[in-house]
Amino acid sequence: MIPEKVIVTAKGKFKPGLAVVLHFKTSEKNEYHYTVFLDNEGKAQIGRNELLREFDQTRNFFLMDFKDPRVVFTGQIEAHVWNKDEVERAIKGYDKFKPHWKYPSDYLDNLKKALTSNAESECVINVEQIASSPSGQAEEIPPQIPPIPFAFQAAKGSWASSVIVFFLLVFSSTGAKIILELIALLLILAGLSLGIIALFGIRKHGTKGILAPALVGLIINGLLLFIFINNFLAARQPH
Q1: 68 and 182: one domain?
Q2: Going by fewer Cβ within 10 Å, which terminus of the chain is more open, N or C?
Q3: Domain count within the chain
C-alpha cells in the first residue's frame, strides 16, 4: 500500500531547493517517480493522495507502461539527487509536456533553482515512510480507471476491420454478394481512416500498442482496396 506520508530529509551539505526524485519500486512494468524540492531545513513531505494523483496521471498518460500503483508498489522507495544534466532534461521535459500535464504551479521555478542548489549540495538523502494511522483519518483516493485513448481503439479497429472484410467476402452468398461487397468497401475505407487517425496519436501516446496494429490495418486494408478496385475495373471492361 502507498504510505500515508513520505518524509524526505537531507543530511550533510545541502542548499534549499535541492531536487530529489523518489523511485517507487513496482513488481510489474515501470516504476513510478515523484520529485520533491527540499525546504530550508532540508526536508520535504508528501501525502498519499498527492502521490496517487501524480501516479494516476502518469498511468493515464502512458497507459501501456504502468499498472495500478495501489497493486504493484513493493514498499521500496529509493531517493536520487539529480545532477545538472538531469535537471536540464527535466526542464526540457516540462516545456514538451506542459500542454498535456498538470504540473504544480511552482514546478518550473523550483527546477530552475535546483540548477544551482543541486550543483552545490553534497548530502545523503533519507526517506521515511509513515504508514496509515490507526484512526483511519487519511482516506486513500480510489483508483482512477483510465479511459482507453481513441488512438489505441482506432489502431485495433483498423486491423479488425480487415478481418471482418475477409469473412464477409469468404462466406458471402451469391444473392447478397453485391450488398456484402458494398459493406466490405465501407469497412475497408473505415479501416484505412482509423489507421491514419491512430498514427496521429503516436505523438501523444507513443508507438507501443498503436504503431504495429495501425500499420497492419493500413497495409491489409490498402491491399484489399487495391484488389477491390482492380476487380471493379476488370468487371467494367467489355469481354
Answers
A1: no
A2: C
A3: 2
Residues 6+ away with beta carbon under 8 Å from 143: 56, 68, 70
**Cβ atoms 35, 20 nearer than 8 A:** yes
pLDDT digits (tens, 9 = 90+) for 12-59: 888 999 999 999 999 999 999 999 999 999 999 999 999 999 999 898
Q: What distance in Å separates the CA atoms of residue 69 and residue 75, rounded to the nearest whole number?
A: 10
What is the percentage of the chain residues whose pLDDT exceeds 90? 41
- CA–CA gap between residue 158 and residue 151 (Å, rounded): 10
Q: What is the pTM of this model?
A: 0.59
The SS3 of residue 147 is coil
One domain, residues 79 and 156: no
Contact 46, 138 (CB under 8 A): no
